[in-house]
Every structure is written in structure tokens, then in C-alpha cells.
Design brief:
Blueprint (H helix, E strand, L loop, with lengths): L2 E5 L14 E13 L2 E16 L15 E7 L2 E10 L5 E8 L8 H15 L4 E7 L3 H9 L3 E6 L14 E7 L1
Parallel strand pairs: 6-7
Antiparallel strand pairs: 1-4, 2-3, 4-5, 5-6, 7-9, 8-9
Length: 176
Amino acid sequence: MDIIIRKKEANDSPQTKSFSRKSPVTSRLVLGIENEKLVYTIAAVEPPYEREVHAEDVDYGFSENGPVIFFAEVDGKLAGRIKMLEWWNRFGYVEDLVVNPEFRGMGIGRKLLERGIQWARENKYPGVMLETQDDNVPACTLYASCGFVLSGFDRNVYKAINPNTRETALFWYLMF
């Protein structure tokens, strides 16, 4: 298996429609606070369900340079993508990280995240931040294993999309 991480060229499409954001949800993070730090445990979700996050090609960054996109290809097939931005607070921001289902569990998400972190270091940002959801446990465990620290949450951020949602937005930071 040959994994290549490459930067999107000016004439490349961001290829948003090429990625599946469906994933099974079998667990979620349960938050707590100890010694003024966020902590969590992982609890089973009953019954399990499937989630799908809809993505658009909208750039929410605060830099006139726009986003930087890196693609992962496995044996010539598009496997994943990370979109990095300069955020309003001068952090590098992971706006989107996705790996297609057939390529999950191969370390592609980690390689993309490492490339995004490298980009942030090269651009002299003080660190990297991102947001994910409490029911995206595979992503949360990836971020924690790469040194990110859970630093905030928002229980209402998704209420405009679905007033009945129980999803909690989680904010992770990696400081350099």
C-alpha cells in the first residue's frame, strides 16, 4: 500500500463530493471537570446509529490567503483530505479532516493531521485548533493521541441545525 500526501494544486478541485462522511456511532465522550481541566470517559451509545456530516466548500478562515488543502491517495485512489486555515486567533485551524470509509483504520487520518500540523509549524502559528463532536470518538482518540488537549465544549452550537440534537461540540488544541 502506497500512501501519498499531496498539496492541492491551483487547478485541482477541492473534491468535497468525493468523500463519504458517514460513520457508525457506538460510543460518545462523557465530559467532566477535574482540577479545572476537562476530562472525559467513553460510554457506549444504545442503540448505535449512523451519523453523516454534510460539508460544503465554504471557507470560514480569516486570512486572505485562503485554505490549504492536502489530499491523501492510496495506490492512486483518493482516500482523504485535510483543509487547514488561519483562524481569527492566529492558530492554524483544521477546518475539515475526512477519510473515506474503505481507507479508515490505515493511519491516513493521522498522516493528514501530521501534515496539517507541519503546515502550521512552517507558518509559525502558535498551535493548531479544531472542533469535532462528542459522538465522533475515533476522531477524538486520534486527536488525543497526537497531543491535542480537550479545552472547551459547546452544547448549543448544533441546535440551529437540529433543535433536538444531543451532540456537543468539542474544541481541541495542540500548542507548540
